[in-house]
Design brief:
With 249 residues, this protein is an alpha+beta fold. It contains six helices and 15 strands.
Length: 249
Amino acid sequence: MANDRETERLDKYICSVTSFTRSVLGKEIRKRGASLNGKQIKDPSVKVREGDVIEIAGMEITVSLKPVYLMMNKPAGVVSANSDDSYDTVFSLLPERYARCHCVGRLDIDTEGLLLITDDGQWSHMITSPAKGVRKVYRAVLASDFSDEAVSRIRNGIELRGEKEPAFAEVTKVGPLTWDFAVTEGRYHEIKRIAAAAGSSVTALRRLSIGALSLDESLAPGMYRELDANEILLPLANGSSSDEDGRGS
């Protein structure tokens, strides 16, 4: 996981937490200047440190160079991306200071639940790499229940259209038309495709956990919080990964 950075260029940091582009920001600083800890500066290459206070274009920015690890309860109706031409994104629910971050994998626009957000590329890769096999658990509401034969096919490997290898999942019924899927592969729309191949369809889908990290159920849809030091390690605890990539599950 990433180490805390000690310093970073002023212009690079401001661009990472605002909508400024590097070229526009450089012109702004050279023409109108900025304030760093109360001192006027016109050099965009000045180094900033943890806790420094920048004032520019009417904004006050407190510098934080520590890696960011967030848990969000993703709501339906937003896409897991930094920007999108057609839909609102999860980043529209976050303060601009998190603009430098990215989603750790993706959930489909209509899929809810646990979404991790970070600026630590190494941590993100360890969670999403198919080679790591990080276990993810989803709760699906189905249009019709699985038969015993369908459950057996899913557990033993079910053929998916367009795939050379069967998909495997551990499925457990937890309520009327409600099933938990535990998967460790990274296939496109995996849960929905498994359900379809087994003769049903998904009407609602929610991710409950990644590795040993479970969604904080006190978070309302669209809300988020930082992970503590112990929680940062939990997604890697079982060694494992399924990621619903593309537009997600």
